[in-house]
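Sat 14:20. Reprocessing the chain from the morning session after the first attempt stalled halfway. Input below, unchanged.
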Amino acid sequence: MPRSPAPDAHLAVLTASAWFRSLPDPLQAWMRAHLRERRLRPGERLFSRGDTPDGLYGLAQGLVRFTGVNEAGQEAVLVVLNPPQWFGEIALFDDEPRTHDAWAESAVTLWHVSQAELAALLAEQPAWWRHFGRLLTQKIRASFTAVEDLVLLAPRARLARRLALMATGFGTLDGQSLRVLRVSQEQLASMLALSRQTVNQALKELEAAGALRRARGAVEVLDLDALRRDATPG
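Finished this time. Tokens:
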């Protein structure tokens, strides 16, 4: 699909990202000038594992699902991203192929900056690498937390922790939070290495505690602090 400069109406979503707001003004201005809009239909694939890296993406609208597939064709859902999220910076650092498949879970609006443009910019402004490094370290921290949760947390606490992280954009929303998380029980089960039945039971318990409300293909967060309290080892 042809791309065009990101419209001003979408800039409020873009600047809601704590990461983008932390950038120095000249870098923010450069990003705005080079961002191009891209739209995907539900079920459309953005990129595949093994693809040549093509730059950095900012998610403005809709949901993007990241998956891996084994030789038998079984899909593992790693994460479902809500706006505003930035991704693609891993390949920016090592220029290696994409590590996973990325799919449009719904109608999606993205902003894209090409790999070549970013490489040229960072060659001229090497001090700006650290700002993209912060995106990378956020994902490393989240990955370590996920591994720790698999070992230390009971299913209910593991689910509460993941929902709390999703509600805060994995730390990118800077004090804000999402109320409705568009994610299915099957996807939560895949992310957390649990059965769907176990996820369903944990959701019922968290709903009875007043932390959330279940909906079809979604979870409504009613009490983020209650989720966080539940997400403790024990």
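Confidence is low (pLDDT under 50) at residues 1-6.
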